[in-house]
Amino acid sequence: MKRRTILVGGGVAAAAALVAGVAVFRSTDTADRRDGEALLAVELPDVDGHDQTLSQWRGKVLVVNFWATWCAPCREEMPQFVAVQAARGTSDVQFVGIAVDQPDKVREFAKQIGLNYPALIGGFGAIELSKSLGNSLSALPFTVVVDRGGRVVERHLGPLVRPQLDRVLDRLLNPA
User: How many CA atoms does the CB half-sphere of 37 hold within 13 Å?
Assistant: First the structure.
């Protein structure tokens, strides 16, 4: 029997995100590796109901964004993610959205913005997963970046702007 991660959480994320502003979280290397491995082990359905495990993107820089269609800051930042995924391709970088939402709403919004990366359905339980990764305010949007070695290297609460995202990706893809 296949084990699916079941998540439970609350729905105050959108309001908290508007109040929270922007925050970047950092932690120890041990916690970063443990959190990265836990995140890569997560299995969630996509909009068509097919289970997807984040480990399929191991070895790439993985940008995991927790979002919802009802979250205004999420809706504003996602076109930037679409543009960055298109510009950088999928050989080294993979964006994955984990939606705190229903599949039909996600499918419709994805079509509207031309989403070019996987959208997985976490429902409201995705908030608990984001909390386990450092989202202490349970707010959206929340983005986690995992390096090629499976270590969480960035945790960002609030909208992630393109220059900031490009700096993180450049640092990981073109180390000095």
Answer: 5
Helix, coil or strand: residue 13: helix
Helix 72-88 vs helix 162-173: crossing angle, to nearest 10:
40
Identify the residue whose tokens are 């996509």.
46
pLDDT tens digits, 7-55: 333 333 333 333 333 444 344 455 677 888 999 999 999 999 999 999 9
Total of domains in the chain: 1
Token pair in block for residue 135: 């989202």
Tell me whether residue 2 is in a domain. no
**Segments forming the whole domain that contains residue 47:** 13-173
1 within some domain: no
Residues β-bridged to residue 131: none
Is pTM, for the whole model, over 0.90?
no
Can you tell me the distance from the alpha carbon of 70 to that of 92, in angstroms, rounded to the nearest whole number? 30
Cβ within 8 Å of residue 27, ≥6 positions away: 35, 134, 152, 155
Distance between CA atoms of residues 120 and 97, nearest Å = 6
* Cβ atoms of 168 and 154 closer than 8 Å: yes
| CATH number of the domain encompassing residue 65 | 3.40.30.10
Q: What is the largest CA-CA distance in the chain?
A: 46
> Does residue 159 fall inside a structural domain?
yes
